[in-house]
C-alpha cells in the first residue's frame, strides 16, 4: 500500500514525487509516457511577478505565493545534488537567447544556460555547426544584437561530423557523453575564437555527462554557454533525467508505459479513491494508495481530452470539465495569440482538490497539480514551470497533511 | 511608360487562365498572364485533387459528364506526370436507391462514361477500409491530378514558348481603347506594370466580377464555397464516390500521402469567404463514415475551402449553387453590348480546363481574325525539371542528410533552390512550391529550420516575421479541426514556438 500514487512524469509529477519521497512517504509514480520536458528549455520561468493581479482562480493564486520560496529551495537543492546546479532567484529576471532569435525571460536556469545572459556587455561568438538543422546561429546572433548584445557567428568544425544522416541534438549529446575528443576539438577551435569573451553553443553538450560543458570551457579557457535547440531539448531532458534519478534515490518507485485509470470506492459517500489501475504492458495492475496526485498534464499530454462532440473530460477519473460545447469557442483567431482551450482543466480549491461547479471536492483524497489545472494560458503567461513547482508542492502538502 | 504589348492578356493564373494562355500561344498569339497571388493560391490550388471520369455528373449534368469523360482521356495523354491513375469506385450502400443505380448506369452508357461493375468482395479486397455492407461497386476512370504540378507545367510551357506569366501582379485598371485595352497591374515591389492588349480574357475565377467591373462590364456570379478535409492517412488507394445524387461529402480522393474528403457547397458573398464552420467538418466526417466507417479513428490533418465561381444567368432564380450547371460559361461582353474585346470564361471544373481554354481561344482567335486551330489536345507538356509534389520523386533524389521537413522529405537544397527560383521571402510560398509544412506536424520543426536557411541566405530579411506568419498560415488550416489529435498538435507547436523558442517575445 502506497501512501501516495502520483500520475504523470512531467516536471510537476517528478517534482511532486521527490517532495513526497523526501517527506518519507511511500510513493509510486505511474506514467503513460514521457512528460513535456523534452520540449522545454529546462529553465524555471515564473511569469508575472505580481500574483495579486492574477485572477483569483489562477493556479498560482490558489497555491499561494508563500509556497514559492520553499518550492524553489527544494528545486535548487535537488538539481544541485544531482550535479546540474541552477542559478537565479524569484525576484530577478534572466534574459536568455533562443534558437529563433528571441530573448526569453526566466528566473532559474542551469548555469550553462544562465551564462548566456543577453545584457552582459561582452563580445560573444555564436557557434554554427554546419549541417545541424535544429539551431540557427545566424538567427541567434541577430536576436542578441537586437537586444544590444555584441554577437557574431563563428563556423566551428566538428571532428567526425555525421554524414550518413541528419543528427538530432540527442545524437550529438550521446557523442559528448561517450567518446568526444574534447582536447582535439579545443585545439582546432581555439584559433577561431580569438578576441571573444564568451562562446554560445547549441545545447548539445551531453545528456548523462554533466561535466562536458565545464571541461570544454576549461580546455578553451573561454566562458561557454548553451542555447536550447529545437526538440529534443537537452536542458529539458537533463532536468527530466535528474529528477527521475533523485526520485528513485529517495525510494520512489516508477511504473512507466502505463496509463492510469482511477479506482473509486463506491461505498464511500463523500467519494474516495482507492488508487489507480495501471494499464501496464503485462496487463492491468492495481496500485493501491491512500492519496492520489494527478500530474497528468493538459491538452498535449491528455490529462484531459476534447472530443469532436464537444465533450471534454479529465482522463484518470473521467471528471467532466466545464467548457463551451461549441468547438469554435475553444480556440482563438491566432495560433500564438490567446487560446481559450489553454486554460481548460480541473478546477481545484486551495488544497488542490478537483471540485465541481459548486466548489465541492469530487474526492477526499485526490489532488491535482501542473498542466491539468484550469485557469492559466501557460504558453502566453510564461509561468508553466512556476505553476508546476508551486502546485506540486501544494498538492503534496495537502495529500500528506 | 514601360508597357508590354500583347495580342492576348489573360487575367488569372489558375488552370483556366494558364490553359487559355497556353492554347493561345500554341496558336501563335502573343500572351501575358497576370496573377494576383502565387501559382495555386486560388481555386485551382484548393480543389480536392479529383480528375473526374464523368460518373459524378452522369445524371445531374450530362454535358459536364461528357466533357469530363473526353477530357479525362486527353489529360492522361498530355499531362501524365500530374496524374496518379488510382481509378475510381462508385459505391451503393444500404439505404441508397437501387433505381438510382440503374438510372446512373444507363446515363453513364449514354454519356460515354466507362463503367465496370465488380463484386463487393473484390471492392473490399482492393479497399479494405470500405463499408463492409456495401451493395454494389463500379469501377470508373477517376484519378488523382495534382493541380500544383499542372499549374507549374503550364506556366513553364507558356514562358518557354515566349509568353509571360507575371505572379503577384494585381490588375488595378482596365481601360478600353479604340482597339483593345490598356491594363495596369500593381507589382510585388509596389510599382505599376502596364500591358497593351488587343483582347483580354477574364479568367479570374471568383474574382472575375471585380475584373469585369474594372472594364465597366456586368457579370452576375454565384459563389459557392467547397470545404475539404485532408486526413493524415491515405485511407484508400482508389477514388471513392457514393453512388447517389451529388451531395455534400460524398467523395474521398487519395492524394499523395493523405486522403481528401470533399466537399460541401455553401453560397457565399465574397471571393475570400473561405472560413470554415464546425458543422461543415462534422458533415464531411459523418458522410465519409458511410464509405469508410473507421474514419473517426483517423486524424484529420487540415481543412480548407475553395470558392467555385459559377455564372448566374440573369434568369436563374435558384439560390443553391449546386443546382446551377457546373458546365462553364463563355461570355463575349462585346456581343452582349459591353466592352469590345473582353471575354470572360467562368465555371467549369479543373478536369475540363483544357476544353474551356479551347472554347475561349476559338472565340478570341475569331476576334483577332486568326484561323489557327487548337493544338493543346495533342501537345504533351513536359514536366518541370524537378517535381516536388510526389513522394517517390523525392525519395529518388533524397540526399543522406539535410532534410528540413521529415514529413514531406524536403531538403536544404530544395529550399535553397526554391528561394532562388521564386525570389520570395515568404515561407508560405515555399509551402506551395515544396509542400513544406503540409505534413502531420504542421511545420513544428521545418518552420524554424527553413527560417534559419532564409536568414543565413540574406540576413537583412525579417526571418522571424516570416516564421511567425508561416505558423499563423498553417494554423488557418488547423483551426477547424481543434479536438483530439489536432488540438494536441496545436499545443505541441505552441510549446515549441512560444515556451521554448519565444517567437512571440521581443
Q: Can you lay out the helices and strands and say which pair or pack?
A:
The complex is a heterodimer of chains A (401) and B (506).
Chain A: E1 2-7, H1 11-22, E2 27-31, H2 59-63, H3 68-81, E3 86-88, E4 94-97, E5 103-106, E6 108-110, H4 111-114, E7 123-128, H5 137-146, E8 150-155, H6 169-179, H7 182-189, E9 198-202, H8 212-220, E10 224-227, H9 234-249, E11 253-256, E12 259-265, E13 272-280, E14 283-294, E15 304-306, E16 312-314, E17 366-368, H10 378-381, H11 384-399
Parallel strand pairs in A: 1-2, 1-14, 2-11, 7-8, 7-9, 9-10, 14-17
Antiparallel strand pairs in A: 3-6, 4-5, 12-13, 13-14, 15-16
Chain B: E1 3-11, H1 15-26, E2 31-34, E3 50-51, H2 62-78, E4 83-84, E5 88-92, H3 98-111, E6 116-118, H4 120-126, E7 136-140, E8 143-145, H5 147-160, E9 164-166, E10 170-176, E11 181-186, E12 192-202, H6 208-214, E13 221-231, E14 239-242, E15 251-255, E16 258-262, E17 266-268, H7 278-291, E18 300-311, E19 329-332, E20 342-346, H8 353-367, H9 391-397, E21 403-405, E22 410-411, H10 412-422, H11 427-434, H12 446-457, H13 463-478, H14 484-500
Parallel strand pairs in B: 1-2, 1-12, 2-9, 5-14, 12-20
Antiparallel strand pairs in B: 3-8, 4-8, 5-7, 6-7, 10-11, 11-12, 13-16, 13-17, 13-18, 14-15, 15-16, 19-20, 21-22
Helix pairs in contact in B: 1-5, 1-8, 10-11, 10-12, 12-13
Amino acid at each position: 500500500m502506497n501512501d501516495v500514487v502520483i500520475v504523470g512524469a512531467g516536471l510537476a509529477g517528478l517534482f511532486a514525487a521527490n517532495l513526497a519521497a523526501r517527506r518519507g512517504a511511500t510513493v509510486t509514480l505511474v506514467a503513460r509516457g514521457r512528460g513535456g520536458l523534452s520540449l522545454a528549455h529546462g529553465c524555471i520561468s515564473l511569469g508575472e511577478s505580481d500574483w495579486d493581479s492574477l485572477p483569483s482562480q489562477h493556479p498560482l493564486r490558489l497555491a499561494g505565493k508563500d509556497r514559492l520560496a520553499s518550492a524553489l529551495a527544494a528545486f535548487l537543492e535537488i538539481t544541485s545534488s544531482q550535479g546540474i546546479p541552477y542559478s537565479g532567484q524569484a525576484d530577478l529576471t534572466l534574459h536568455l537567447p533562443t534558437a529563433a532569435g528571441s530573448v526569453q525571460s526566466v528566473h532559474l536556469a542551469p548555469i550553462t544556460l544562465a551564462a548566456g545572459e543577453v545584457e552582459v556587455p561582452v563580445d560573444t561568438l555564436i557557434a554554427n555547426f554546419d549541417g545541424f538543422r535544429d539551431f540557427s546561429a545566424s538567427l541567434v546572433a541577430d536576436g542578441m544584437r537586437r537586444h544590444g548584445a555584441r554577437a557574431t557567428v563563428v563556423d566551428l568544425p566538428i571532428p567526425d561530423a555525421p554524414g550518413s544522416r541528419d543528427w538530432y541534438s540527442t545524437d550529438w549529446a550521446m557523442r559528448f557523453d561517450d567518446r568526444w575528443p574534447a582536447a582535439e576539438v579545443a585545439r582546432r577551435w581555439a584559433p577561431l575564437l580569438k578576441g571573444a569573451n564568451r562562446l554560445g553553443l547549441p545545447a548539445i553538450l551531453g545528456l548523462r555527462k554533466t561535466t562536458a560543458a565545464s571541461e570544454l570551457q576549461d580546455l578553451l579557457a573561454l566562458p561557454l554557454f548553451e542555447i536550447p535547440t529545437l526538440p529534443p531539448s537537452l536542458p529539458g531532458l537533463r532536468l527530466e533525467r535528474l529528477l527521475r534519478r533523485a526520485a528513485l534515490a529517495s525510494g520512489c518507485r516508477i511504473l512507466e508505459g502505463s496509463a492510469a485509470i482511477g479506482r473509486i470506492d463506491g461505498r464511500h459517500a463523500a467519494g474516495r479513491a482507492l488508487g489507480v489501475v495501471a494499464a501496464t504492458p503485462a496487463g492491468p495492475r492495481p496500485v493501491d494508495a491512500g492519496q492520489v496526485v494527478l500530474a497528468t498534464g493538459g491538452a498535449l499530454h491528455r490529462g484531459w481530452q476534447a472530443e469532436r462532440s464537444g465533450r471534454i473530460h479529465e482522463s484518470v477519473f473521467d471528471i467532466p470539465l466545464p467548457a463551451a460545447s461549441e468547438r469554435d469557442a475553444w480556440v482563438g483567431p491566432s495560433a500564438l495569440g490567446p487560446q481559450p482551450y489553454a486554460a481548460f482543466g480541473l478546477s481545484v480549491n486551495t488544497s488542490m482538490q478537483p471540485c465541481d461547479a459548486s466548489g465541492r471536492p469530487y474526492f477526499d483524497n485526490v489532488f491535482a497539480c501542473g498542466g491539468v489545472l484550469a485557469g492559466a494560458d501557460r504558453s502566453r503567461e510564461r509561468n508553466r514551470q512556476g505553476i508546476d513547482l508551486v502546485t506540486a508542492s501544494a498538492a503534496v502538502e495537502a495529500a500528506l497533511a | 511608360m514601360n508597357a508590354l504589348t500583347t495580342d492576348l492578356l489573360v487575367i488569372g493564373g489558375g488552370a483556366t487562365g494558364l490553359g487559355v494562355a497556353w492554347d493561345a500561344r500554341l496558336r501563335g498569339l502573343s500572351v501575358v498572364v497576370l496573377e494576383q497571388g502565387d501559382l495555386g493560391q486560388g481555386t485551382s490550388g484548393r480543389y480536392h485533387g479529383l480528375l473526374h471520369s464523368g460518373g459524378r455528373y452522369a445524371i445531374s449534368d450530362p454535358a459536364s459528364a461528357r466533357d469530363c469523360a473526353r477530357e479525362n482521356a486527353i489529360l492522361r495523354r498530355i499531362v501524365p506526370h500530374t496524374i496518379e491513375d488510382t481509378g475510381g469506385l462508385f459505391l451503393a450502400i444500404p439505404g441508397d436507391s437501387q433505381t438510382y443505380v440503374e438510372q446512373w448506369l444507363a446515363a453513364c452508357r449514354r454519356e460515354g462514361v466507362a463503367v465496370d461493375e465488380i463484386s463487393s468482395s473484390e471492392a473490399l479486397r482492393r479497399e479494405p477500409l470500405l463499408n463492409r455492407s456495401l451493395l454494389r461497386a463500379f469501377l470508373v476512370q477517376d484519378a488523382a491530378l495534382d493541380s500544383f504540378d499542372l499549374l507549374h507545367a503550364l506556366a513553364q510551357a507558356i514562358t518557354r514558348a515566349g509568353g509571360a506569366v507575371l505572379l503577384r501582379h494585381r490588375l488595378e485598371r482596365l481601360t478600353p481603347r479604340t482597339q483593345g485595352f490598356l491594363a495596369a497591374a500593381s507589382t510585388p515591389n509596389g510599382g505599376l506594370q502596364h500591358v497593351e492588349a488587343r483582347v483580354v480574357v477574364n479568367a479570374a475565377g471568383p474574382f472575375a466580377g471585380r475584373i469585369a467591373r474594372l472594364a465597366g462590364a456586368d457579370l452576375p456570379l454565384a459563389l459557392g464555397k467547397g470545404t475539404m478535409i485532408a486526413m493524415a492517412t491515405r485511407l484508400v488507394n482508389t477514388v471513392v464516390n457514393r453512388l447517389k445524387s451529388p451531395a455534400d461529402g460524398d467523395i474521398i480522393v487519395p492524394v499523395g500521402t493523405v486522403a481528401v474528403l470533399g466537399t460541401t457547397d455553401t453560397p457565399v458573398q465574397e471571393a475570400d469567404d473561405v472560413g470554415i464552420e464546425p458543422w461543415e467538418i462534422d458533415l464531411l466526417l459523418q458522410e465519409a463514415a458511410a464509405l469508410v466507417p473507421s474514419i473517426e479513428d483517423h486524424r484529420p490533418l487540415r481543412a480548407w475551402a475553395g470558392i467555385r465561381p459559377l455564372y448566374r444567368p440573369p434568369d436563374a432564380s435558384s439560390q443553391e449553387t449546386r443546382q446551377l450547371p457546373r458546365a462553364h460559361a463563355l461570355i463575349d461582353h462585346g456581343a452582349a453590348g459591353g466592352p469590345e474585346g473582353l471575354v470572360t470564361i467562368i465555371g467549369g471544373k479543373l478536369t475540363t480546363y483544357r476544353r474551356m481554354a479551347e472554347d475561349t481561344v476559338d472565340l478570341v482567335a475569331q476576334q483577332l481574325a486568326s484561323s489557327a486551330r487548337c493544338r493543346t489536345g495533342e501537345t504533351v507538356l513536359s514536366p518541370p525539371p524537378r517535381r516536388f509534389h510526389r513522394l517517390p520523386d523525392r525519395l529518388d533524389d533524397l540526399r543522406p542528410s539535410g532534410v528540413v521537413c521529415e514529413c514531406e522529405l524536403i531538403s536544404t537544397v530544395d529550399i535553397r533552390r526554391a528561394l532562388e527560383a521564386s525570389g520570395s521571402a515568404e515561407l508560405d510560398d515555399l509551402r506551395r512550391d515544396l509542400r513544406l509544412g503540409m505534413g502531420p506536424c504542421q511545420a513544428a520543426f521545418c518552420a524554424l529550420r527553413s527560417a534559419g536557411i532564409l536568414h543565413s541566405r540574406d540576413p537583412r530579411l525579417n526571418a522571424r516575421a516570416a516564421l511567425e506568419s508561416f505558423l499563423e498560415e498553417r494554423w488557418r488550416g488547423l483551426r477547424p479541426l481543434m479536438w483530439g489529435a489536432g488540438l494536441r498538435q496545436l499545443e505541441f507547436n505552441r510549446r515549441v514556438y512560444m515556451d521554448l523558442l519565444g517567437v512571440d517575445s521581443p
